[in-house]
């Protein structure tokens, strides 16, 4: 039992780690931590899993080069352009932007639809309002678990960082089945789409690898949960 | 099994330092909840209407009209789309190159480049440092913070007031005079009728309805434009329009609409229509005047007793002055209004009480002063100025003008100026020989040619050398003309700061972008009913500011703190202290006249109602005794001929109203051989200027293939192989745009309409976003100011002339590019 | 003490009974009374004897009243205490009785039982009455004087102008007509109180041949004593005092007038539409009131102007020694009131003759009383490009 618990704690750490990478820009502190002995041994441990090793190594390599304020700013600009603004070359970090259509948000008229089909991804042009149903659901989950979003992170509940942090919480508080059910309903439904978008738009590549790592990790972890 | 090992490895690293920085924390007390249960209906207001909101789990859920608004518009359905817009500015951001290189940054990157998130402290410090640099290097003439335009409603958080007070504490800056809406009108009418007229209360509708036999709607679409108001709109005017409709139906009042297009009001009232060629209204008015004069139908007593200069005007009318008699036949050729129709119109106007109601469109063109002046001359000749249901109005389509004023005192506002006795940190008033105030629509000219001297309203204006601009709740990349000309000049600015709720084109062209919250995220106070001042509205905060946005009050309080002037800025009061003060000052001003409860009660009730006012007739006092109640003209009389203007010796605004050919005019006018179509860019039907355009779900109710509609004449469209629903490329030598075709018989041959306020979203020819930064790039959504002319109306007003604009159009056959208007900065790739 | 007991019962009757339907005024006058004892009690308190019996009024207000037109006039109709001080409608009457309980309090505890104490309390009591009149739209006055039946023809043009403006707004009568039945309490001023608080009411003694400035728009009179108004002196206008007599001063006003109409509007200077004084038609016609001098044609309008001087009387108040405090107040008001919707233009952006048009065309959302409006307009004109040379 204590073995499982330790595993769960480790999984929680990974989820929190991923959450923090999507929550805010990489700082010099984080670079220092991740390039320290402890940090390296953490990343190396992750890289032991074959499906994760490629992205972990790429991230590691990128981190090693982040040795100036300017480079950190460039990375911050990548982060900002990808996740903090809305645009055709940005990637929404909100589950609601991917899942709303299925949840009932309907486009208005046929002409608009025609335009969407012509101009590429339907999802990209059919932006729905923020703080929608999924935000509300996540808020309810958090409240039920006596949790709330930190006031320094003024984002909707369906932000990927919140969802990952919530899974971290579930890792140490609930059973595999429950974890799996949440992950499958609220993350796996859109994560690959998200990762694809990041890969399409992130020219700096750091967040491509972070997104890849996240997706691969989830694949590994859900498989683990399934077999647990 | 292997997997378990690597997990153990993770734990062994004790990498908990990072992992503790979770975005989640234990639930503390439930989210702050005000005195009132947040799931009740709360009250607030907007330009679109006063309304109520209900919250569900901390998110605005339902919106419904305010109880006292009997004619709400469906624009309030767009409110949620403003608040929860994916294009919200979520955090303070700075353009990366500006952050790295400051005032030496590559400004050509503006509009398509990378931003980084910063903290409020960083952003505001950077803002101050930029101001320091400008004031040190250039003095006050280097800074233009004299923005124009609307705002979100509310007397406390009014965006321009906050920005200018705070920036004014730092130093002086260039300001503007006039506005884009009524620039020519508000400049010419003080010379003629002694008041701006456009912003003055007008004769009450009940008196018009009771006394007028004929109402002439000249280029006027009140049914469309009265949907929005300067304050929280409660749409009282629509009751009178409904009564007018009844009277038209019963034949009690004749309404004649003179307009190139079939307006929404025409359709609603079912009134008579007279088509006139665009921009030729002065010719039509002159012919009516000629008809009145030659048939001795003009009111000679009124002209003699109340006006000056008729004898100087008549020689022009008869052709003695210029050899051209302004006959109906002469006018028919220019205006396309048949001679006999003009004759009949002239007779009708003097056959009984005739109320002229002028719209603003016809003064937003080259020589826009002339139609307003000539209309006043016509009204003088008819001789009914100052009588109920007679005379002339320039405002009955605006903010409830014509609804009797309650007479109550309105609340004041958070002060826009630095308090008396306080000096800015940089207190230089040395504008280096340049003017400290420039005509509102001439700022791009100033950037283009600093130091140039121009004529304006009888004075000389020397353009300052502007290096920095600040925009708060303000979108010049909507309201200014000729985008490509803007693009060419805008990069000369060293620093641009923009404060807004959602990413506008102006934000994308800025260096420092700061997130303000919407009215739904702050407490405020406003009057409702605009000019009628029917009552006072509590604007109750529904939700906490989203993301890292702040109220205008909070943004500039923090900025003042950076300046070391927080106390001077707030006078030691917080948001609610100010609201209480504004309310109590208003209560005191109304003491003994209107009963107002204590503030707490008012806030609980959501509003206090002042009731209906008493009917009133514009210019009646002048008519009664012009000596004691003179007009504000130089003579105190109506000036048919102005010696004052004559002395300016302007070739484009002479001593009396004059018909002048335009630089571009359709229907056989100059330039129509190349670009035969006149583009009308009037105020939108479904927005307040550009406000609400970003509200996606609401926008979807009127867009065509996601584009702004362009209204096309059926024959013209057919000729170009265009059908309803097609995407159309509209172009001229100044630019090009894409819009969605709506083919409608309401629009005559040679005329198209694209409502202004359509957000600018340029894209490259290849559909790429980076290409959008190039001069000449096509606007993917349909901003008509991509095509308009950036010229002054004349040397008098130097006003916006967006209506003097010829274009052509064709079916768009290329690969349809995405709409890029409603999003943040564009390209990630370096 | 029986009345007291009745009144006390009345006052203690629960409100829900008191608010029962409002009996119309007509029904009341016709003597249709349903409510037995309650109504009788009220009526008992509605006679003059009743009032002066307890109100310790015989020496003060009652005697003051007897000297006014409300007591003795051509019509023979006399206004008595309750005509003005008890509202003539039921709902308000009840409310007034409730309010009167503090009078009862005063009587019982001798708050105003001496002349000195009465004078001390006069303003407070008067203010309470004025507030009540305003709340009631001066209904008590309008029962006899209503706007509709006024003899407009017999009024001077100026009176007509002011009365019509008041009628349009259904203004409370006591807004202007305070102190018509009793001596006016010593108070600041009801008009533009903030302005007067700022600039003061002026000196009590004047030096002849010295210049003073009007702090409000002031009535002008033909003589030191008479009530006949000869016109109005605009706010912030410079006048020379020629002599003082009791409460009036004789002032010399100079300026220019347009040779149109009766030529009864005096402006600041040749060709400049800055209002100095408006005289009544009668004054303008009266030989010797306006002395005309040289004439000039204004090229800007083609109108003939004439330099004029006039000598008239005005009340010896609101004439101050310096003009600057008026401008300071106007500047502050302009900057705060005119920046609610937009940035206020610089004073020197327009010339003196353009400002009235710009100002009048923009005041829809501005809260200024008429004196302040006139002052701010004059301030803007006086500080316009006509006088302050500054490029713009």
UniProtKB/TrEMBL annotation, chain A:
<dbReference type="GO" id="GO:0051259">
    <property type="term" value="P:protein complex oligomerization"/>
</dbReference>
<keyword id="KW-0963">Cytoplasm</keyword>
<dbReference type="InterPro" id="IPR036411">
    <property type="entry name" value="TorD-like_sf"/>
</dbReference>
<keyword id="KW-0143">Chaperone</keyword>
<dbReference type="InterPro" id="IPR036386">
    <property type="entry name" value="HscB_C_sf"/>
</dbReference>
<dbReference type="InterPro" id="IPR023069">
    <property type="entry name" value="Chaperone_TorD"/>
</dbReference>
<protein>
    <recommendedName>
        <fullName>Chaperone protein TorD</fullName>
    </recommendedName>
</protein>
<dbReference type="Pfam" id="PF02613">
    <property type="entry name" value="Nitrate_red_del"/>
</dbReference>
<dbReference type="InterPro" id="IPR050289">
    <property type="entry name" value="TorD/DmsD_chaperones"/>
</dbReference>
<comment type="function">
    <text>Involved in the biogenesis of TorA. Acts on TorA before the insertion of the molybdenum cofactor and, as a result, probably favors a conformation of the apoenzyme that is competent for acquiring the cofactor.</text>
</comment>
<comment type="similarity">
    <text>Belongs to the TorD/DmsD family. TorD subfamily.</text>
</comment>
<dbReference type="InterPro" id="IPR020945">
    <property type="entry name" value="DMSO/NO3_reduct_chaperone"/>
</dbReference>
<dbReference type="GO" id="GO:0005737">
    <property type="term" value="C:cytoplasm"/>
</dbReference>
<dbReference type="GO" id="GO:0006457">
    <property type="term" value="P:protein folding"/>
</dbReference>
UniProtKB/TrEMBL annotation, chain B:
<feature type="domain" description="Molybdopterin oxidoreductase N-terminal">
    <location>
        <begin position="44"/>
        <end position="84"/>
    </location>
</feature>
<feature type="signal peptide">
    <location>
        <begin position="1"/>
        <end position="31"/>
    </location>
</feature>
<dbReference type="InterPro" id="IPR009010">
    <property type="entry name" value="Asp_de-COase-like_dom_sf"/>
</dbReference>
<dbReference type="Pfam" id="PF01568">
    <property type="entry name" value="Molydop_binding"/>
</dbReference>
<dbReference type="InterPro" id="IPR050612">
    <property type="entry name" value="Prok_Mopterin_Oxidored"/>
</dbReference>
<dbReference type="InterPro" id="IPR006657">
    <property type="entry name" value="MoPterin_dinucl-bd_dom"/>
</dbReference>
<dbReference type="InterPro" id="IPR041460">
    <property type="entry name" value="Molybdopterin_N"/>
</dbReference>
<dbReference type="GO" id="GO:0009061">
    <property type="term" value="P:anaerobic respiration"/>
</dbReference>
<keyword id="KW-0574">Periplasm</keyword>
<dbReference type="GO" id="GO:0050626">
    <property type="term" value="F:trimethylamine-N-oxide reductase (cytochrome c) activity"/>
</dbReference>
<dbReference type="GO" id="GO:0009055">
    <property type="term" value="F:electron transfer activity"/>
</dbReference>
<dbReference type="GO" id="GO:0030288">
    <property type="term" value="C:outer membrane-bounded periplasmic space"/>
</dbReference>
<keyword id="KW-0732">Signal</keyword>
<dbReference type="Pfam" id="PF18364">
    <property type="entry name" value="Molybdopterin_N"/>
</dbReference>
<keyword id="KW-0479">Metal-binding</keyword>
TrEMBL record, chain C:
<feature type="binding site" description="axial binding residue">
    <location>
        <position position="55"/>
    </location>
    <ligand>
        <name>heme 1</name>
    </ligand>
</feature>
<feature type="binding site" description="axial binding residue">
    <location>
        <position position="85"/>
    </location>
    <ligand>
        <name>heme 2</name>
    </ligand>
</feature>
<feature type="binding site" description="covalent">
    <location>
        <position position="338"/>
    </location>
    <ligand>
        <name>heme 5</name>
    </ligand>
</feature>
<dbReference type="GO" id="GO:0009276">
    <property type="term" value="C:Gram-negative-bacterium-type cell wall"/>
</dbReference>
<comment type="similarity">
    <text>Belongs to the TorC/TorY family.</text>
</comment>
<protein>
    <recommendedName>
        <fullName>Cytochrome c-type protein</fullName>
    </recommendedName>
</protein>
<dbReference type="GO" id="GO:0005506">
    <property type="term" value="F:iron ion binding"/>
</dbReference>
<keyword id="KW-0349">Heme</keyword>
<feature type="binding site" description="covalent">
    <location>
        <position position="54"/>
    </location>
    <ligand>
        <name>heme 1</name>
    </ligand>
</feature>
<dbReference type="InterPro" id="IPR009154">
    <property type="entry name" value="Membr-bd_4haem_cyt_TorC"/>
</dbReference>
<dbReference type="GO" id="GO:0005886">
    <property type="term" value="C:plasma membrane"/>
</dbReference>
<feature type="binding site" description="covalent">
    <location>
        <position position="341"/>
    </location>
    <ligand>
        <name>heme 5</name>
    </ligand>
</feature>
<feature type="binding site" description="covalent">
    <location>
        <position position="144"/>
    </location>
    <ligand>
        <name>heme 3</name>
    </ligand>
</feature>
<keyword id="KW-0813">Transport</keyword>
<feature type="binding site" description="axial binding residue">
    <location>
        <position position="177"/>
    </location>
    <ligand>
        <name>heme 4</name>
    </ligand>
</feature>
């Amino acid at each position: 039992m204590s073995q499982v618990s330790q595993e769960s704690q480790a999984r929680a750490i990974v989820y929190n780690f991923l959450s923090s990478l999507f929550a805010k820009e990489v700082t010099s502190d984080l670079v220092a931590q991740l390039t320290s002995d402890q940090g390296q041994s953490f990343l190396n441990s992750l890289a032991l899993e074959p499906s994760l090793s490629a992205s972990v190594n790429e991230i590691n390599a990128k981190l090693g080069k982040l040795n100036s304020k300017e480079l950190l700013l460039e990375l911050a600009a990548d982060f900002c352009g990808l996740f903090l603004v809305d645009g055709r070359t940005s990637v929404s970090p909100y589950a609601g932007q991917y899942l709303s259509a299925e949840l009932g948000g309907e486009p208005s008229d046929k002409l608009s639809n025609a335009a969407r089909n012509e101009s590429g991804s339907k999802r990209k042009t059919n932006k729905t309002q923020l703080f929608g149903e999924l935000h509300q659901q996540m808020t309810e989950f958090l409240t039920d678990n006596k949790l709330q979003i930190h006031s320094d992170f003024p984002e909707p509940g369906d932000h990927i960082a919140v969802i990952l942090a919530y899974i971290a919480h579930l890792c140490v508080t609930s059973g595999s089945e429950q974890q799996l059910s949440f992950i499958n309903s609220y993350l796996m439904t859109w994560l690959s789409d998200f990762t694809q978008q990041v890969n399409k738009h992130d020219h700096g590549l750091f967040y491509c690898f972070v997104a890849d790592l996240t997706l691969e990790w989830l694949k590994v972890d859900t498989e683990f949960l399934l077999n647990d | 099994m292997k997997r378990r090992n690597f997990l153990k490895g993770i734990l062994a690293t004790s990498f908990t330092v990072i992992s503790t920085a979770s975005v989640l924390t234990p639930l503390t007390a439930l989210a702050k909840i005000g005195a009132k249960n947040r799931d009740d209906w709360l009250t607030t207001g907007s330009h679109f209407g006063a309304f109520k909101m209900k919250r569900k789990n901390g998110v605005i859920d339902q919106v419904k009209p305010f109880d006292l608004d009997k004619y709400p518009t469906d624009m309030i359905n767009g409110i949620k789309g403003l608040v929860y817009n994916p294009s919200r500015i979520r955090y303070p951001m700075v353009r990366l190159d500006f952050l790295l290189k400051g005032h030496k940054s590559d400004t050509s990157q503006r509009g398509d480049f990378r931003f980084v998130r910063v903290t409020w402290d960083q952003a505001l410090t950077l803002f101050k440092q930029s101001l320091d640099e400008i004031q040190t290097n250039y003095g006050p003439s280097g800074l233009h913070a004299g923005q124009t335009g609307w705002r979100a409603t509310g007397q406390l958080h009014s965006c321009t007031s906050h920005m200018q007070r705070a920036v004014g504490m730092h130093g002086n800056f260039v300001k503007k005079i006039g506005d884009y809406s009524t620039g020519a009108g508000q400049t010419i009418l003080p010379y003629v009728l002694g008041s701006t007229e456009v912003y003055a209360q007008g004769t009450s509708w009940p008196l018009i309805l009771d006394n007028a036999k004929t109402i002439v709607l000249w280029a006027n679409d009140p049914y469309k434009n009265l949907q929005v108001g300067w304050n929280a709109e409660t749409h009282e005017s629509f009751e009178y329009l409904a009564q007018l409709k009844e009277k038209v139906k019963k034949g009690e009042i004749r309404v004649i609409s003179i307009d190139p297009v079939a307006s929404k009001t025409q359709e609603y009232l079912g009134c008579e229509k007279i088509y006139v060629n665009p921009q030729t209204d002065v010719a039509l008015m002159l012919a009516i005047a000629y008809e009145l004069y030659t048939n001795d139908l003009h009111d000679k007593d009124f002209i003699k007793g109340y006006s000056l200069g008729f004898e100087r005007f008549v020689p022009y009318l008869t052709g003695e002055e210029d050899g051209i008699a302004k006959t109906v036949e002469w006018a028919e050729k220019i205006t396309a209004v048949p001679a006999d129709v003009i004759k009949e119109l002239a007779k009708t106007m003097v056959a009984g009480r005739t109320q002229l109601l002028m719209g603003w469109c016809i003064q937003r063109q080259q020589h826009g002063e002339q139609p307003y002046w000539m209309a006043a001359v016509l009204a003088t000749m008819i001789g009914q100025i100052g009588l109920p249901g007679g005379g002339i109005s320039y405002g009955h389509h605006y903010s409830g003008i014509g609804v009797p004023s309650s007479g109550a005192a309105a609340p004041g506002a958070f002060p826009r100026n630095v308090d008396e006795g306080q000096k800015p940190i940089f207190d230089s008033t040395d504008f280096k020989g340049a003017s400290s105030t420039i005509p509102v629509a001439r700022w791009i000219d100033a950037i283009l040619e600093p130091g140039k001297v121009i004529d304006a309203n009888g004075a000389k204006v020397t353009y300052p050398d502007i290096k920095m601009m600040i925009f708060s709740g303000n979108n010049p990349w909507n309201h200014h003309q000729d985008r490509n000309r803007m693009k060419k000049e805008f990069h000369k600015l060293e620093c641009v700061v923009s404060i807004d709720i959602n990413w506008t084109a102006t934000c994308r062209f800025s260096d420092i972008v700061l997130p303000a919250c919407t009215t739904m995220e702050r407490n405020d106070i406003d009057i409702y009913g605009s000019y009628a001042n029917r009552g006072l509205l509590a604007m109750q905060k529904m939700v906490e500011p989203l993301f890292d946005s702040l109220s205008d009050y909070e943004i500039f309080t923090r900025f003042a703190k950076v300046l070391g002037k927080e106390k001077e800025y707030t006078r030691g009061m917080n948001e609610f202290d100010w609201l209480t003060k504004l309310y109590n000052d208003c209560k005191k001003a109304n003491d003994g006249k209107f009963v107002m409860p204590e503030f707490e009660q008012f806030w609980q009730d959501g509003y206090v109602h002042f009731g209906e006012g008493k009917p009133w007739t514009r210019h009646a006092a002048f008519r009664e005794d012009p000596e004691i109640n003179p007009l504000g003209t130089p003579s105190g009389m109506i000036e048919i001929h102005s010696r004052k203007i004559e002395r300016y010796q302007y070739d484009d605004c002479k001593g009396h109203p004059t018909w002048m050919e335009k630089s571009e005019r359709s229907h056989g006018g100059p330039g129509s051989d190349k670009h035969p179509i006149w583009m009308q860019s009037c105020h939108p039907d479904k927005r307040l200027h550009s406000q609400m355009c970003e509200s996606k779900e609401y926008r979807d109710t009127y867009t065509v293939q996601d584009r702004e509609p362009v209204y096309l004449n059926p024959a013209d469209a057919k000729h170009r192989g265009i059908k309803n629903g097609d995407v159309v490329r509209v172009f001229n030598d100044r630019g090009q745009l894409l819009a969605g075709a709506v083919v409608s018989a309401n629009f005559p041959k040679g005329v198209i309409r694209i409502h202004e306020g359509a957000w600018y979203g340029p894209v490259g020819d290849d559909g790429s976003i980076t290409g959008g930064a190039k001069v000449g790039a096509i606007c993917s959504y349909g901003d008509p100011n991509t095509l308009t002319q950036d010229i002054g109306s004349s040397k008098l007003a130097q006003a916006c002339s967006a209506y003097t604009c010829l274009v052509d159009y064709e079916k768009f056959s290329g690969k349809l590019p995405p709409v890029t208007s409603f999003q943040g900065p564009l390209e990630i790739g370096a | 003490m029986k009345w007291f007991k009745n009144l006390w019962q009345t006052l203690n009757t629960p409100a829900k009974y008191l608010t029962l339907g409002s009996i119309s005024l007509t029904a009341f006058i016709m003597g249709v009374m349903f409510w037995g004892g309650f109504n009788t009690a009220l009526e008992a308190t509605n006679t003059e004897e009743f009032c002066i019996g307890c109100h310790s009024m015989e020496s003060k207000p009652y005697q003051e009243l007897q000297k006014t037109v409300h007591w003795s006039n051509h019509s023979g109709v006399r206004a008595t205490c309750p005509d003005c001080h008890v509202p003539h409608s039921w709902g308000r009457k009840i409310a007034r009785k409730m309010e009167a309980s503090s009078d009862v309090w005063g009587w019982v505890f001798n708050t105003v039982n001496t002349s000195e104490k009465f004078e001390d309390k006069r303003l407070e009591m008067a203010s309470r009455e004025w507030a009540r009149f305003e709340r009631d739209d001066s209904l008590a006055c309008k029962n006899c004087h209503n706007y509709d039946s006024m003899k407009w023809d017999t009024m001077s043009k100026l009176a007509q102008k002011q009365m019509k403006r008041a009628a349009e707004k259904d203004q409370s009568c006591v807004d202007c007509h305070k102190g018509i039945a009793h001596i006016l309490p010593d108070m600041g001023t009801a008009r533009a109180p903030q302005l007067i608080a700022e600039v003061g009411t002026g000196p009590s003694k004047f030096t002849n041949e010295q210049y003073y400035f009007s702090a409000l728009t002031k009535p002008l009179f033909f003589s030191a004593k008479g009530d006949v108004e000869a016109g109005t002196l605009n706010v912030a206008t410079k006048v020379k005092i020629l002599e003082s007599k009791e409460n009036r001063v004789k002032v010399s006003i100079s300026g220019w007038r347009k040779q149109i109409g009766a030529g009864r509007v005096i402006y600041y200077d040749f060709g400049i539409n800055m209002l100095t004084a408006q005289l009544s038609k009668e004054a303008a016609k009266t030989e010797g009131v306006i002395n005309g001098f040289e004439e000039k044609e204004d090229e800007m309008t083609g109108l003939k102007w004439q330099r004029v001087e006039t000598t008239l009387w005005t009340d010896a108040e609101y004439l101050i020694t310096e003009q600057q405090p008026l401008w300071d107040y106007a500047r502050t008001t302009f900057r705060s009131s005119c920046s609610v919707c937009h940035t206020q233009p610089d004073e020197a952006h327009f010339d003196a003759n353009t400002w009235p048009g710009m100002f009048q065309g923009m005041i829809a959302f501005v809260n200024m009383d008429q004196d302040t409006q006139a002052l701010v307009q004059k301030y803007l004109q006086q500080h316009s490009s006509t006088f302050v040379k500054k490029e713009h």
